[in-house]
Amino acid sequence: MPHKHHRAPHISPAYTGRLAMAPVPSLRLPDDAMEPGAAYRFIHDELMLDGSSRLNLATFVTTWMDPEAEKLMAETFDKNMIDKDEYPATAAIEARCVSMVADLFHAEGLSDEDSSAACGVSTIGSSEAVMLGGLAMKWRWREKVGKDWKGRTPNLVMGSNVQVVWEKFCRYFDVEPRYLPMEDGRYVITPEQVLDAVDEDTIGVVAILGTTYTGELEPIAEICAALDQLAQDKGLDIPVHVDAASGGFVVPFLHPDLEWDFRLPRVVSINVSGHKYGLTYPGIGFVVWRSKEYLPEDLVFRVNYLGGDMPTFTLNFSRPGNQVVGQYYNFLRLGRAGYTQVMQCLSQTARWLGDELRDSEHFELITDGSAIPVVSFRLKGKPGYTEFDVSEGLRSFGWQVPAYTMPEGATDVVVLRVVVREGFSADLARALKDDMITVLGRLDALKPRGAFNDLQPFAH
Fold first, then answer.
1. How far apart are CA 256 and CA 259, in angstroms?
2. Phi/psi of residue 221, each to 5°?
3. Which of 167, 220, 376, 425 would bridge 417 by S-S if both were Cys, CB 3.0 to 4.6 A apart?
4. What are its GO cellular component terms (predicted)?
């Protein structure tokens, strides 16, 4: 009896269909629909060409969270943060997070029973927070100057080492930026520079807690003391905004006795990025003010078309509530003890890596990871290759270690930087060191003399 071949009821190999045989339009909508699995595979495969986020040592942004946090965030993708009347639990969680941040920074007039006592808001990262802090300072300057403010040009004093969002703020909102230059060996601003730059049209001074370029802490207490003396001597009352995007969730736990926040009376507002050392996936930030008097009422809008009377003073409107939920998870999960343990662990790893680089014959250390867990360094002498060559060599191992030139006043200085984040273990640090040794050995033999100098990866 002849053997009968039975056809399988369904054979559909993943890569023999239309997606594998014909290109999919990438700049216009496709004509036809596709199966969910096929669309997933198409996008998933293209994303494999990205670098590994865990090996991206250029970014300050969180690349690992607990699975439980990821589950909570996935469950709340669909909740619009702005709909506070429809999602009261999410709104309450946001208010609690703002209160916790304000308390961490020693804001005034807080209450254990009333979260609305804290003056602040969650934002889409520190970029939006910076805009709000800058606008509040500009509006308060206008109130102080009076009706003739339109004939004057407000200015903002800050270092040339500020993040680019401060440049955006000044350009978008007609404020003159007064950049204080760096110099070789000094990559933060000084009180003397600040005093030379401020005048009666200065809306504020920006001081950075953890600079993007090196991770250093600017001398905030000394700057405030100099401005206090200026106010006493000349009656010039200049507020300070602290850009704590990188250091705001580190310094309170690593250096709790360092006074940089609202313990200094001259500090009126602070921004911080929850998606950096707040340990939450992007994008989540916060801006908090010392008290409600430092947020002008003119910046607050009230709408009722979403249900209820809702004050709003953010630049963005609709956004998902899951980032706030993720931040709240971290606050409850870790508490002060947990954040302290995480930051001490990251600092220990960063300082170990810094010690290894300092002890090598190749590098001069700029920051050793003790301020915040960031290590910045440069090549010694003229080895026949540049920091850009080192950065490119590390990419062949998967590591993304940025090389970049320093800001105005020190543009001839080139720096490499490693940001140690949650998920970058001591074992990975040892692997990076071993790969660095291999790369340096190759460069010592090849001496490419800056072959990759034109490749400057973005260093956020």
1. 8
2. -65, -40
3. 376
4. cytosol
Q: Which two tokens stand for residue 431?
A: 């692997």
Give the tokens for residue 95: 């208010």
Contact 9, 15 (CB under 8 A): no
| Ordered DSSP codes for 169-233 | HHHHTT-EEEEEP-BTTB-S--HHHHHHH--TTEEEEEEEBS-TTT-PBP-HHHHHHHHHHHHHH
| Structure tokens given for 296 | 């002008």
Mean pLDDT on 348-375: 96
Interaxial angle between packed helices 426-446 and 387-395, expressed in degrees from 0 to 180 and rounded to the nearest 10 = 120
Q: Looking at residue 292, what DSSP letter applies?
A: G
pLDDT at 195 over 90: yes
pLDDT at 455: 60
CB–CB of 207/242 below 8 Å? yes
Using alpha carbons only, give the angle 185, 374, 215 rounded to the nearest 5 degrees. 50
Under 8 Å between Cβ of 120 and 101: yes
| Paired tokens of 320 | 């998902």
- The DSSP secondary structure of 95-109, one letter per residue, reads HHHHHHHHHHTT-SS
CA distance 92 to 259: 30
The residue ranges of every structural domain in the chain are 68-333, 341-445
Q: Find tokens 């170990």 and name the residue.
A: 352
Identify the band that residue 160 occupies on the pLDDT scale cut at 50, 70 and 90.
very high
Helices 322-359 & 67-75 angle (0-180, nearest 10) = 150
CATH class of 341-445: alpha beta
